Amino acid sequence: MKRVDFSVLTPAYRRLLRAARQAASTSYNPYSGFSVGAALLAEDGRIFAASNFETAGGTSICAERSAVVSANAAGCRLFSAIAVVAGSPERPVHRPTAPCGACRQVLYELSCLAGRDLAVILSSTDCSRIVTTSSHELLPMPFGPDDTGVDVSVFRTRCSGSFRGGRSGRRR
Question: Which of 43, 64, 90, 137 is catalytic?
Answer without folding.
Answer: 64
